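Thread: arginine complex, take 2
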Amino acid sequence: MNKVIAAVVAGVIIAICIGVGVWWYYSHSVAPAKSYASTPTGKEYLIVGTSPDFPPFEYVAKNGSIVGFDIDLIRLLAHKIGYKGIKIVSMDFDSLIPALLHGKIDVIAAGMSITPQREKVVAFTIPYWHADQAVLIRANSKWVPKSLEDLKGKTVGVETGTTGAEYIKKYASKLGINVKEYSSFVLAVQDLVNGRIDAVVLDSPVAKMFTSKYPVKIAFIIHTGEVYGFAVRKSDVKLLHALDQALKEVLNSTAYKKLVEKYFGG
Ligand code: ARG
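Output below.
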């Protein structure tokens, strides 16, 4: 009988020792370095291409860093799907799709409108914003166009490769509009302010933002009903699904509401 009790006591002691040992091992062993092979692109960072001349979506802050609504949003999504963070690559707007296709960047975050032409070459996430085109003129201008016809004989600035540029170019020769293309909206608006051109056509939320930064005003709106999405290579199916899933969740979150408030003031 004593032998049985001794065996049970020994068993219990051994079990306790094993338990303590296992606990000690797990609580003191260094957690293995997190592997990023599990991110949709197999990289630690999501490589984001943008064109920072489009406030408040993407612009250059006073300290030189690239910031904006798109930047914060894609960073949020990147963290959600397992990335350590984002790396931003800045370039002209019309270089973004070629850069994506050549693998220089993994996603475009640039207030890019989802269009059938672009959908032939890249894949877009679900939409996260909407916009129309606005016609911007100098704030002190006596000439206030009301429609495209009123732009006859005038010089209109656009950003190369944008939906606004394509729209105006379609009507330019028929309506006698001179189109001047710029690599950046900021340069176009500066030329407008300096009197070198008569108007700029650009996305309505951005036009609105420019009216608070430069002496310019919105003459009229062209209702194009565009929506913005993030663009990835068509072959990056995993990345697209992960971004879509994360975006769906984020769009209904308080973090998103805060983001809208931060850049659009509620
Ligand atoms: N939404 C317009 C387009 O897709 C203009 C976007 C311009 N974006 C920029 N970051 N400059 O063509």
